Amino acid sequence: MREGSLEAPVRHALDWQNPWFWDERALEKEMERTFDICHGCRRCFNLCDSFPRLFDLIDNGPTGELDGVKKEDYAKVEEACTLCDMCFMTKCPYVPPHEWALDFPHLMLRHRAVKARKEGIDFVEAQLAETDRTGRLGTFTAGLANWASDEHNKLTRPALEKWAGIHHGARLPEYAGETFVIRAAREGAEVNEAAPAFGKRKAVIYATCFVNFNNTGLGAAARAVLAKNGVATEVVHPHCCGMPKLELGDLEGVAAAARQVTAALLPWVDKGYDVIALTPSCALMLKFEWPLILPKDPAVDRLSQATFDISEYVVDIAKKEGLAPGLQTIEGGVSVHLACHARAQNMGAKAAEMLRLVPKTRVAVIERCSGHGGIWGARTENFETAVKVGKPAAQAALKNDTSFVASECPLAADHLMQVMEMTAGEQKPKPARAHHPIELFARAYGLMEREP
């Protein structure tokens, strides 16, 4: 046996259809084994809050070892896990192919799934995970919904905190007045026939819940950049990818979403289209999580092989066909935050690589967690922790002193911007708002209105 592993991490399928997976004693034994190894290593102390919680439980216990921690306290470690995968991808020396074969995120997911099957999922949390239904309702009532969800609304936000457990100070995404699918059909996208990639690629854009119902401008920017580079696109949103249900341990729900979206997208692949996911969490689901949850489904595997993150796709065009001319400097530079679910795709820092294609533009990279973790960071019991975890990234962005800040994850971008504002105090940050890298790339092409 070697101490640590120099090979690339290998992710094993999630064996959730095996009765062993649901055995509480087997789960407790595996958590004990994993936690004891983590205690002896501690390389992951500065990632999420799970590891400080674990180490504090051990250090403050009667023996100073794991045997002094109550088994019921193991849940406190799981509750802090955002399933970002960074411990598996970047820190842990004992992941497969090492014989200890640790997979901390999937172990936390297993604990969450076992608890959900035994106790059921909280009603409010289950409703919040129905993002398509919530998105349709929010878009239909956008003006009212945005007024009610504003963190400065002293009337509605305390009520939302009491009813839904969403912290009154957490910044929530606004809803668009129309879906991106409708906007794309209304606006169209004229393809640049002079671009080097014209006639060589076509893509179907999986809008994702967030872009379809919240930030349609991100989708419009992505489509405009692709059209500028000769890529004809179609826009679809058949169903949520299931990430919110994954976070709740609802593996059956995730599997159902995977089958439904795969059935809708695979015919496009059969017609020669690439699949582009506009948010990294959704790209991660299609590319990696679904094949690990449904490892014997060839359709899911085929879709996985055809899926790209939007930044990854633009960089691929640049390398293989070349980009259309016309990119202009982004004055003042960009601080780009590499989102955890983008890094977990194991594709490299594609957002930074894409922005560096813009001439004479300073690109400062931030590789620290934003602290958001999907809805996790907005919950009442987690918001202060989310701010604490995100503070180093916010401080780095402020120190960079760039005119723009961007993150591949739109939710992380908004949270990072809020923490920057909280950290800066009376001196406001230079960026007016947070962007997605593809929005800034569209701006460099002159495809977006310039902000004051």
Descriptive report:
It is a single chain. This protein is 50% helix and 7% strand. The chain is an alpha/beta fold and 452 residues long. The strands form two sheets. Strands 2-1-3-4 form a four-stranded parallel beta sheet, sandwiched between helices. The longest helix has 20 residues, at 251-270.
Elements, N to C (H/E): HHHHHHHHHHEHHEHHEHHEHEHHEHEHEH
Identify low-pLDDT runs.
Answer: none
Estimated share of beta-strand residues: 5-15%
SS element count, helices: 22
Distance between the termini: 60 Å
| Average pLDDT taken over every residue | 92
Biggest sheet character: 4 strands, parallel
Shape: globular
Keywords:
50% helix; alpha/beta; 8 strands; 452 residues
Task: Offer a concise description of the structure.
50% of the residues lie in helices and 7% in strands. With 452 residues, the chain is an alpha/beta fold.
Write the layout of secondary structure elements.
Blueprint: H1 24-41, H2 50-59, H3 74-79, H4 86-91, H5 104-119, H6 123-128, H7 131-140, H8 142-149, H9 157-164, H10 180-187, E1 202-206, H11 208-213, H12 216-228, E2 232-236, H13 243-247, H14 251-270, E3 274-277, H15 280-293, H16 298-306, E4 307-309, H17 310-320, E5 334-337, H18 340-343, H19 350-355, E6 363-366, H20 383-400, E7 404-407, H21 410-424, E8 434-435, H22 437-444
Parallel strand pairs: 1-2, 1-3, 3-4, 5-6, 5-7, 7-8
Helix pairs in contact: 1-5, 7-8, 12-22, 14-16, 15-16, 20-21
